[in-house]
Amino acid sequence: MTRRLQGIDPSLYFITDTGLCRQAGRSVAQTAAAAVAGGAGMVQVRDKRLDDQAFHDLTLDVIAAVDDVAHALGRRVPVVINDRVHVARRLLDEGHAVHVHVGQSDMPVPDARRILGAEPLLGLSVVTASDLPAAALSAEIDLIGIGPVFATGTKADAGLALGVRGLRELVTRSSVPALAIGGIDAGNAGSLHGSGVVGICVISAICLAPDPAAAAQRLYAAFRGRPA
């Protein structure tokens, strides 16, 4: 783990989906708070449709909700912004602790790190071995998200599923702690226990759950190889 990850449990990394939360009758902030109550140790705010101001405001709502629960539980739970580095910079300047995750087609890692500064966490999406960060970039990145591991309908451009074997192969090639993402639910999360990843990223299995806190609890337990 990098210095910036100290004190964080990345075992369950919740990624928000505004439409799915709305479909389940909850706000993004309510869902994020419930996920943290159930064991999520990181929350990423993702919404490609909102403009920057609306995304900024959504992130503030999530930060407030997550911080309330995390404080009550005595845990550190980072809120991560998907892609929008300049929104993250604005929030940092306003005094909010936020972090960033970028994809292969988003802002390059060196540029993102330069804008964010040294303290925020920075994650990177990886699909193939050629996407793995070079040694020179590894010090700039705290986590990589590898996937899709299983078939998923949440992300239209996710590509073909790697499977657990493909995931393991990429993990062994990476010098950066890795998360698994894509099609993960309580039924298959246990198969990723011992795969080399430090955590699992989950969207719909929490967003659409009747009880997102209970769903998060089951996912966490399954990945950690514990009884639910």
Strand percentage, roughly? Answer: 5-15%
Question: Class in CATH?
Answer: Alpha Beta
Using the coordinates shown, work out and report the CATH topology. TIM Barrel
Radius of gyration: 16 Å
Question: Could you tell me how far the N terminus lies from the C terminus, measured between alpha carbons in angstroms?
Answer: 26 Å
Widest sheet: strand ordering: 1-2-3-4-5-6-7-8
Q: Averaging pLDDT over every residue, what do you get?
A: 95
User: Could you give a short account of the major beta sheet?
Assistant: 8 strands, parallel, barrel
Along the chain, the helix and strand elements come as EHHEHEHEHEHEHEEHH
Number of domains: 1
Which features does this protein show?
single chain; 9 helices; TIM Barrel; 228 residues; alpha/beta; 8-stranded parallel beta barrel
Structure description:
It is built from 9 helices and 8 strands. It is an alpha/beta fold and 228 residues long. An 8-stranded parallel barrel has the order 1-2-3-4-5-6-7-8, surrounded by 6 helices. Helix 7 links the parallel strand 6 and strand 7.
Short description:
Helix content is 38%, strand content 15%. The protein has nine helices and eight strands. Helix 4 links the parallel strand 3 and strand 4.
